[in-house]
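Support case: heme C complex. Customer-provided input:
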Amino acid sequence: MFCRRCFRHPAAAGWLPAVDQISYAKDVAPILDKHCKSCHVAGQAGYVVSGFELESYETLMKGTQYGPVVLPGDPLTSVLVMLIEGRADPSLKMPHGEAKPLEPAEVATIRQWVEQGAKNN
Ligand code: HEC
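Agent response - structure generated as follows:
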């Protein structure tokens, strides 16, 4: 989106704060590794019950046995974002059970990554 008067990007023109580009490898994968991976690999409960495997970018994007949980550009309806933001049924809170929830900054990072297109960057 560019300003129609000056043809500059609003962030470049200094009117909007520049938005950081979130990296899957540097920002998102470490959060999922820390909070989610222990249950979402072959043989563990999360994977066995839902089919959702956190082995790679490809398995993350593949989603559960019912389909994708990340919709690039659409954090509002992405199930993954709903779960970590606590917008789903409490029985489906992730991390599951008593595990500690994500820090607000970690939730924001994942939300922003989805918003920016959920790229393998
Ligand atoms: C302590 C184990 C555990 C941890 C940690 C965990 N999960 Fe899960 N996860 C589960 C289990 C068990 C299910 C199946 C829940 C069910 O269907 O009742 C599940 C299901 C899911 C699903 C599928 C939900 C659906 O719609 O069927 C997603 C997506 C998911 N987890 C994401 C995550 C994310 C993201 C994290 C980290 C923030 C995480 N999980 C951490 C155990 C875990």
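The chain has a mean pLDDT of 90.

Case will auto-close in a few days if no follow-up is received.
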